[in-house]
Amino acid sequence: MDRHFLTPLFSPQSIVVFAGPSGAAESLPEPTRLLLQELQDHGFAGQLNFLDIEMTGTLAELAHSRADLAIIALPPGQIAAALEIAGRIRCRAALVLSTGVPGNDCAELLAIARRYGVHLLGPNSLGFQRPHLKLNASVAGPLAAPGPLALVSQSGALTASILDWAARNGVGFSTVVSLGFNSAVDLPQVLDFLANDQGTQSILVYMEGIHHARRFMSALRAAAYTKPVVVMKGGRKPAGSKAALTHSAAIVGSDEVFEAAFRRAGAVRVHSFSQLFSAAKCLTSRYRPVGKRLALITNGGGPGVLAADWANDLGLEVARLSDAGRAALAPRLPAHATLDAVIDMGEEAGAEHYSAALLACAQESQVDGMLVIYSPKRGSQPEAVAGAVGEASQRAGKLVLTCWMGDRSMGVARETLNKATIPSFRTPEAAVDAFNNIASFYQNQQLLQQTPTPLTEMNRPDTEGARLLIEGVLTERRKVLTEMESKALLAAFHIPVTRTMLARSASEAMLIASQLGYPVALKIDSPDISHKSDVHGVVLNLVSATQVRDAFNDMRASVARAMPSARINGVTIQPMSGKRHGREVYVGLTTDDPFGPVITFGAGGTMIELINDRAMELPPLNQFLARRLIERARVAESLGEWRGLPEVNWEALEQVLLRVSEMVCELPHLREMDLNPIIVDEHGAVAVDARIVVDHAPPSARDYNHLAILPYPTSYEREWPMRGGDLYTIRPIRPDDADMLQAFVRSMSQESRYFRFASAMQELPARTLARFTLIDYDREMALVAVHRERRAGADGQMVGRERIIGVSRYVTNPDQTTCEFSLAVSDEFKGQGLGSRLMLSIMEFARSKGLVDIEGLVLANNDNMLRLMRSLGFSVRSFPEDPDFKLVVKAL
User: Fold this and answer.
1) CB under 8 Å to 56, separation ≥6 — which residues?
2) Closest of 214, 193, 205, 208 to residue 261, by C-alpha
3) pLDDT at 304
4) Would you say domain 453-498+578-709 falls under CATH 3.30.470.20?
5) What distance in Å separates the CA atoms of residue 355 and residue 438, rounded to the nearest whole number?
6) 687, pLDDT greater than 80
7) Which CATH superfamily is domain 714-891 in?
8) Which strands form 69-72's sheet, in the order they lie side by side?
């Protein structure tokens, strides 16, 4: 059951083709004739049959035509009949290449496919290519050359353009898929297949939109954890909504949310056609940078300056050699070489100089990658320099990119670099762009590996009190919380706020101000006013009762003139923050379609739209993600020691973000939120003003379904007793369990490994280990039984060590109602009820996800496992596809 469910579509053993009446090729449309020619001419090794929907006979007579895949290239009116025949002869997949199919007809085709359990690609798709199978099931052009890249595109025109470009540039593919808009086989499913495809090393994606954020993020994260994924998204929209009730919603655009989603998924985002391939070319290199420090080596000052300028614009650091490195390299370069930020060796630089400079940079710990730039000079030898750079790069041990400028005289040199698998570019800016993209790959992979919990280990919030407050507001048919209500909600989650009291008269305002202590701030309190400053609804630094009285009366009058219809609750009074060294930042929340809640951070104050400083992240957050979110904002530069001010308390700011993440996870009612400004200094952070917009929680919001990324499910951690009085913990697996899981597999007996994996493997391959430990808890679950041992260390001290002693796992099947399980228990701990407990726990989780049946394959000679399955109420059946296995099934 390890075969991917899309294998019949993308790796068929047999194909039936519906393309019109047999023997009438001359009457077929040109695209269909080309399709048939492509199918027949390339030597596809499987069985290829042709059927006609007008043929007569019984299904029994058609039995010999049973195939994995049906390809349908017919006029729209005949597609449904062909798909019906494909379903009846038990094709597992179908490809509809017809274009211009109306929406109603598409819905009918999807219904037929669902009825017969057929995986349908198309209609309105250009099809797919699998070059290594010699299969061109597309109308996108000739079969591409085989290679390690996979391409998935939501645009047929772009698919054809990329294939044409690739043919001219010697780029090969493992898979090319053009997705139709109405296709049942969608982008997440194709990504899932490619993540498990052995012939694919990198994945290129062109996309324009998604339908289901959770499924998309699940598949993208799984794919990006096992191989590089480069995404280009079209349809970028301008930011902001005029109907927004908060600053956050007004300044956050949908494309920026996609950017945050790609980053969190560990993928690389590019913005142009050329970047798509240059990033993929670099990511297939053996070496990937772990930082953003790029050394520049050139024989001309101008190109080096261009590269350095562009690197600075992108936020990269131009790496400098150490003093020792400069001293060692200088005697090996021409006399006029300069070794400043850019290593400019001058016009006299030859092959030996380039080689020396490259190896010197490679030895420096502060260099993450090298860009070698060569400009043509009279009497120069670009081919010899390219050969030297190719040879030196093999010894460098770091990423090397090249830019051989010019055209006519550089062809042979570029071929030399290509043969050495060194990425080569025609301009310095393009090379720097490529380095920036792949440097972000490492950073994004760090974000991908984070598995935050919905609640942190800080003091637990008053979640129930917060929900009651929100429900009270909604029962009044309001959606905007007052400042008092907003701060009460923040206080329930332990976010520091300024003391705030509401005054309904000038006399009450003076009394409250004297109690709170001067100086104070006054703010209008109205559910109808989004931005108080716009209507003169904020007055700061009042130091006497007279000023408070006058400000109160003036504010009420000016607000009444500016917004006569606004409901006024009164005026809030709060003490000034008193933070002499404070900096103003903001934390916001907006709700995106389709990704749901998005947390934003940036410079605060009254001009945040004008400053336009924002970074964003999808919840949930942990401390690592919170720190990275802060660092991405421009205001982060002012949070350290800055203009005589001490460094702020970063931990306090991180805790505010973590508390906001808790609010987002636990309160699906939240729609928009502004904490602006938050004043932060060396002592801590305090929210001075807050505005929160809520709405009724959708019915699907249980179990954190309102989030695009499911949090780590801490609620499923359980401690269980072992025979003999010891304890073990069953909990969901985490990415940092990889070493423990590998040790568990290595410690299994050969028989146990064979029973679990049906192979003689000694350990898990790196890619499989990654796939088993970083999982999406929404579509699969792996529970590990962890035992903590105490043993004497080398120094005689007792030390604790955790080890995995059992694993149960399930993966949801494509029908979304059943799942497939696996189970393994350490030989040392068998016979203690561990297997039963792991199976009951995984079944409980599957049941909570609404799954109906759980099934699995067990080797027929694995008597102990079959006995356990029967004891748990599983039915044991024969498995028709392989008599060596038994199929065990239980209703949940």
Assistant:
1) none
2) 214
3) 92
4) yes
5) 24
6) yes
7) Gcn5-related N-acetyltransferase (GNAT) (3.40.630.30)
8) 47-51, 14-18, 69-72, 93-96, 119-121
Burial (CB count <10 Å: 0-12, 13-18, 19+), residue 561? exposed
DSSP class per residue in 779-838 = TEEEEEEEEEEEEE-TTS-EEEEEEEEEEEEEEE-TTSSEEEEEEEE-GGGTTSSHHHHH
Domain 499-576, classified CATH 3.30.1490.20, yes or no:
yes
688 burial type by CB count under 10 A (0-12 exposed, 13-18 middle, 19+ buried):
buried
Burial class (CB in 10 A: 0-12, 13-18, 19+), 800: exposed
Pairing of strands 202-207, 146-153: parallel
Q: What's the CATH number for 287-422? A: 3.40.50.261
Which residues in 705-729 are b (16+ Cβ under 10 Å) and which e? Answer: ebbbbbbbbeebeeeeebeeeeebe
Strand-pair category, 47-51 with 14-18? parallel
DSSP 543-612: -SHHHHHHHHHHHHHHHHHH-TT----EEEEEE----TT-EEEEEEEEEETTTEEEEEEEE-STTHHHH-
Measured in whole angstroms, how far is the alpha carbon of residue 757 from the centre of its chain? 29
- By CB neighbour count within 10 A (0-12 exposed, 13-18 middle, 19+ buried), where does 276 fall? buried
Q: How far is CA 242 from CA 253, 594, 613, 717, in A?
A: 12, 19, 19, 45
Q: Which residues neighbour 326 within 8 Å (Cβ) at sequence distance 6 or greater?
A: 339
How many residues appear in the chain?
892
Residue whose C-alpha is closest to residue 17's, from 101, 97, 114: 97
Instruction: Find the DSSP H helices in 338-410.
Output: 351-362, 382-396
* 158 residue type, one letter: L
pLDDT digits (tens, 9 = 90+) for 826-858: 999 998 899 999 999 999 999 988 899 999 999
Q: Taking residues 95-102, what's their average pLDDT?
A: 83
> Under a CB-based contact definition with an 8 Å cutoff, are residues 772 and 765 in contact?
no
Using alpha carbons only, give the angle 380, 384, 386 rounded to the nearest 5 degrees: 105
Q: Which pTM does this prediction carry?
A: 0.85
In this predicted model, what pLDDT tens digit does every residue of 561-579 receive, in sequence order?
A: 999 988 898 999 999 877 7
- Dihedral angle, C-alpha 301, 302, 307, 308, nearest 10 °: 60
The Cα–Cα gap between 623 and 631 comes to: 12
- Residues with Cβ within 8 Å of residue 794, at least 6 apart in sequence: none
Token pair, residue 835, equals 């297997």
Residue type, 445: Q
Taking alpha carbons only, the member of 232, 216, 312 closest to residue 264 is 216
Tell me the CA distances in angstroms from 806 to 334, 734, 786, 835, one per residue in order. 63, 14, 7, 8
Where in the chain are the domains?
287-422, 453-498+578-709, 499-576, 714-891
8-state DSSP, 642 = B
